[in-house]
Write a structure and sequence with these properties.
GvpG; Gas vesicle protein GvpG; mainly alpha
Length: 74
């Protein structure tokens, strides 16, 4: 029965393969999003943008709060 099922589902193999790739990409994105080192690097980059004058203090505070909340949620 397993061989017959596989033969019937063979035309769907590209779809199943694509779904696997999407799941792997989502898992990696989630891992990077939750990685404390990534959040710390984003905080450092944010501070550099503030010091260079690229963003104002209000934007810095808002984004910093979001990043710190993300870090606390880990």
């Amino acid at each position: 029965m397993g061989l017959l099922t596989e033969a019937l589902l063979l035309p769907l193999a590209p779809v199943r393969g694509s779904l696997w790739v999407v799941r792997q990409a989502l898992a990696e994105a989630e891992r990077q999003y939750r990685d404390p080192a990534t959040v710390r690097a984003e905080l450092a980059a944010l501070e550099a943008r503030l010091v260079s004058g690229e963003i104002d203090q209000e934007t810095f505070d808002r984004v910093e709060d979001q990043l710190l909340d993300r870090l606390e949620g880990l």
